[in-house]
Design a protein that fits this description.
Length: 503
């Protein structure tokens, strides 16, 4: 690296060695994962019986009350993509016949939870929604909804939009996550701990929204809330490059660094000390009438993790005391039967001392249980068996970009996938001695993503860190559990709020 580039990197507070590695990724790309099979209900995805579900929903609350539980909610994403079609209409010629999406929005506008707020903005300006509909001033309605001089929904994060209507008011996703937290994340000290990752410009609005809700909820449910916030760390930003892999320079000569995707939030997760951490995206919420299955399956995956983790801890403590045939046999059973992992060929011929060290290293890792829903064509990562460098097989969540679909056998594995990842995880991030794992040590840096973007009319390439539930957790012990499709209700566009699951 030339000294001029290094000085620029240092002057912008970044690490030259890390940036040099990032430029290397642009030049060399990332290898595909060695997928050997899709994870299915017959091979890698656990399907809970009615008896098992009833057991966990009964036993989990008592276990959770004795440990520290945190609900981790990535909430920094802007809602602008939700309104892509509305913005296009606002910038266009105003011919609604060319936009079925906008026509559907206008035809059902009274069904949106933000209807009253939007109408108040227009009334304050001497108009109303009905008046603008009568005069076919659709742009006036959209401007009041999206632009900052109105509700400003086009620049707010999803977590602060009105999603659901109730007789006593309208709720944002942030509020709905508080209700969910009461249902399955009440831990030690009758306390619900929720951590939101937010963008700097919206943190004060999140704090205000949550602060206005807490007194009522704490009084009504007799619980305590501990709400915390963090922002994606600037140090996790990655350098952008031109199409020829040279650093992209801004007009003022500075280097362009960009946020590195949700994988950057691994550092935020790493800062949290808890026994049990649930992870769920901000927009995946439903009204109260549909929350029961979400609650049951959250308790189920949380209870399953605590149960399996106890077995892992017992095996590790036994191996720490002595390495003999009995302790190795117990550890092997936990690794292959309880965790469902697969040992490399020739393992059985190894001496107990080698087996013990291998199993100790494999078991003493963070653990996660991931809900998986049946694939209905939604985009997202899928569950697969992946071959590791040591010959063992592990369960991984892989994005399409990580899969070599040009290879015939890999393509068949991809086509055979029956489920996908709805970002429904519960994590155990402490070791068997009660210490917090350094989660950064279990990340596979060769599982990042390169995407093409543009700025100021110039094309560029951007680098995303290994995804939070993909390569960022590649070294974790993983279990997959089938969860019902009703537990997955993301809001990708504003018209998704018209689906029955959000009404």
């Amino acid at each position: 690296m030339d000294t001029g580039l290094e000085s620029k990197i240092l002057s912008q507070g970044m690490n030259p060695e890390v940036v040099n590695q990032q430029i290397g990724h642009f030049k060399n790309g990332f290898p595909f994962l060695q997928i050997v099979a899709p994870a299915t209900p017959e091979n890698g995805i656990k399907v809970l019986s009615d008896k098992e579900l009833a057991y966990f929903t009964k036993t989990y609350p008592e276990k959770a009350s004795q440990v520290q539980v945190v609900k981790f909610v990535p909430a920094s994403g802007a809602a602008s993509r939700m309104f892509k079609d509305l913005f296009a209409f606002l910038d266009g010629d105003g011919d609604i016949t060319k936009s079925p999406f906008v026509q559907k929005f206008m035809d059902n506008i009274e069904k949106f939870a933000f209807y009253d707020d939007l109408n108040e903005v227009l009334v304050a300006d001497g108009s109303s929604i009905n008046l603008k509909l009568d005069t076919k001033d659709y742009k006036g309605i959209l401007a009041a909804l999206l632009l900052d001089e109105g509700l400003g929904y086009g620049s707010l994060p999803k977590g602060l939009l009105r999603f659901h209507s109730y007789p006593d008011g309208r709720r944002t996703p942030a509020y709905e996550h508080l209700i969910e937290g009461i249902q399955y994340a009440t831990g030690e000290g009758n306390t619900v701990k929720i951590h939101f990752t937010v963008s700097p410009e919206h943190e004060s609005k999140f704090r205000a929204e949550i602060a206005s809700a807490l007194p009522k909820l704490e009084k009504e449910y007799g619980i305590n809330f501990e709400i915390s916030y963090s922002q994606q760390k600037k140090s996790t930003d990655t350098i952008a490059v031109n199409m020829d892999n040279t650093p992209f320079l801004e007009d003022d000569g500075s280097l362009l660094f960009r946020p590195a995707g949700h994988g950057a939030l691994l550092e935020n997760l790493n800062d949290i000390s808890a026994d049990l951490i649930f992870i769920k995206n901000i927009d995946n919420v439903v009204p109260d009438r549909l929350k029961s299955e979400t609650k049951d399956y959250k308790m189920a995956i949380g209870g399953l993790l605590l149960e399996i983790q106890a077995k892992v801890f017992e095996a590790l403590k036994t191996l720490s005391d002595t390495v003999d045939e009995a302790s190795v046999s117990l550890a092997e059973h936990v690794f292959t039967q309880d965790l469902g992992a697969k040992l490399p060929e020739g393992f059985s011929e190894k001496p107990n001392s080698v087996k013990g060290e291998y199993l100790k290293e494999k078991l003493n890792r963070p653990i996660r249980v991931c809900g998986m829903v049946k694939n209905t064509g939604e985009p997202g990562g899928g569950p697969f068996w992946v071959k590791e460098s040591d010959g063992s097989l592990s369960l991984q969540i892989a994005e399409t970009a990580q899969i070599d679909v040009a290879d015939p056998s890999t393509r068949e594995h991809f086509k055979g996938s029956t489920h996908f990842n709805p970002v429904d995880l519960v994590c155990g991030t402490k070791d068997f001695e009660g210490n917090d794992f350094d989660l950064l040590k279990y990340r596979d840096m060769m599982t990042g993503f390169i995407t093409e973007k543009s700025k100021g009319g110039r094309d560029l390439k951007a680098l995303e860190l290994p995804g939070l539930w993909n390569g960022a957790m590649a070294g974790w012990n993983t279990l997959f559990v089938e969860v019902p499709l009703i537990t997955f209700n993301p809001v990708k566009t504003v018209n998704d709020l018209l689906r029955d699951e959000h009404q």
